[in-house]
Amino acid sequence: DVRARASDPDPALLRRGSEFAERQRAQRERLKLPAFPTTTIGSFPQTEQVRKARADHTAGRIDDAAYEQFLREETARTVAWQEKVGLDALVHGEFERNDMVQYFGEQLDGFAFTRHGWVQSYGSRCVRPPIIYGDVARPAPMTVEWWRYAQSLTAKPMKGMLTGPVTILNWSFVRNDQPRQRTCRQIAFAIRDEVLDLEAAGAPMIQIDEAALREGLPLRRSEWDAYLEWAVACFRIAASGVADTTQIHTHMCYSEFNDIIAAIGAMDADVISIETARSKMELLEAFRSHGYPAEIGPGVYDIHSPRVPAVEDMTELLELATKRLSPDQLWVNPDCGLKTRKWPEVEPAIVAMVEAARRLRETVKTPAPSNAG
Question: Which stretches does the entry tag as region Disordered (predicted)?
Fold first, then answer.
């Protein structure tokens, strides 16, 4: 029963099996990644063709089989391209997803959607937030088949890609007949079940994005701690069911961490990727002064601009990062997903990013190579 499960969860459900250092050893033995491993945040460009195919499918102009075949071809092309340019941890590209919340809401019980309920997100970008009207449950796996297909195309690790419970809550219109945290816990258990299904299918790393964790902070500073306590607990419910060898990633895209760094640490993810390119890595100061123990992917290029950064720009940012954190902690990735960019911008930028990581491996000594057992 959804309500019973979410009403008073066993504290053991909020804890990973081991401390981070032990998990890190197990994951490195399994993944055998190089130092400064490279990855992307999840989405690749949603081209005009992708948007047209989605619109045609929605309007009934193409059937399910034709649409699925189109998506599989886009996914296969993107996986092959990532392999060709030398990325270390791959993603499937998310071509089947219209929006990082709507995609999940459409597959969960308790969500309703509008046809015309558009809300401005920023600039000309608009979204249609779902309405959470009832108890949230997951009737069936949501992402496992796409992950399985993408992983079948490569021997490199393929990340499972999920939106976190707090972000789904904060980017929805939420029922007001029960506390927000109770609704969030229901979402967290639905995501937990998905995480465990991905792990059972063989996913070595699973990313649970919490892009909107900070957005939910109450206006009154005095209420922050209570919010952060249940928000972190919900993330941990979603993430903590996996074995030590399964690497949990999270992603956050905003530029103010100092005042919530303790909560970010308490989330206990194995890897966090953050938006730092425009701040010249200054954001890492919060992680350094907090003694953040886990691995961090500070964004090395700003995806909100069409500018393609030079290898030297990214190498310089990574060198700045190594002055604030142990080189052994660092991943190399863009600031955010690449959904809104165009392929001619993305291709040279990712090639340059992979080259920047390669140069760093040659010049910076990491305390322990990332494939150490």
Answer: 1-29
Average pLDDT over residues 266-288: 90
Q: How far apart are CA 98 and CA 113, in angstroms?
A: 13
Mean pLDDT of 287-301: 94
Distance, in Å, from the CA atom of 129 to the CA atom of 110, rounded to the nearest integer, reads 14
Whole-angstrom distance, CA of residue 289 vs CA of residue 325: 10
Which CATH number goes with the domain that contains 139? 3.20.20.210
Question: Regarding predicted confidence, which is higher, 236 or 1?
Answer: 236
| 304 carries an active-site annotation | yes
Q: What is the 3-state secondary structure (H, E, C) of the chain?
A: CHHHHHHCCCHHHHCCCCCHHHHHHHHHHHHCCCCCCECCCCECCCCHHHHHHHHHHHCCCCCHHHHHHHHHHHHHHHHHHHHHHCCCCECCECCCCCCCCHHHHCCCEEEECCCCCCEEEECCEEECCCEEEEEEECCCCCCHHHHHHHHHCCCCCEEEEEECHHHHHHCCEECCCCCHHHHHHHHHHHHHHHHHHHHHHCCCEEEEECCCCHHHCCCCHHHHHHHHHHHHHHHHHHHCCCCCCCEEEEEECCCCCHHHHHHHHHCCCCEEEECCHHHCCCCHHHHHHHCCCCEEEEECCCCCCCCCCCHHHHHHHHHHHHHHCCHHHECEECCCCCCCCCHHHHHHHHHHHHHHHHHHHHHCCCCCCCCCC
pLDDT at 373 over 50: no
Number of domains in the chain: 1
Q: Is residue 371 part of a domain?
A: no
Is 96 part of any domain?
yes
Query: Using one digit for the tens of pLDDT, what is the confidence trace for 9-30?
Result: 888 999 999 999 999 999 999 9
* pLDDT tens by residue, 303-330: 888 889 999 999 999 999 999 999 999 9
Q: Which domain holds residue 240?
A: 2-363
In a domain, 47, yes or no: yes
Per-residue pLDDT tens digits for 25-41: 999 999 999 999 999 99
* Residue 24: φ, ψ to 5°: -60, -45
In a domain, 84, yes or no: yes
Determine which one of 57, 251, 290, 304 is catalytic. 304
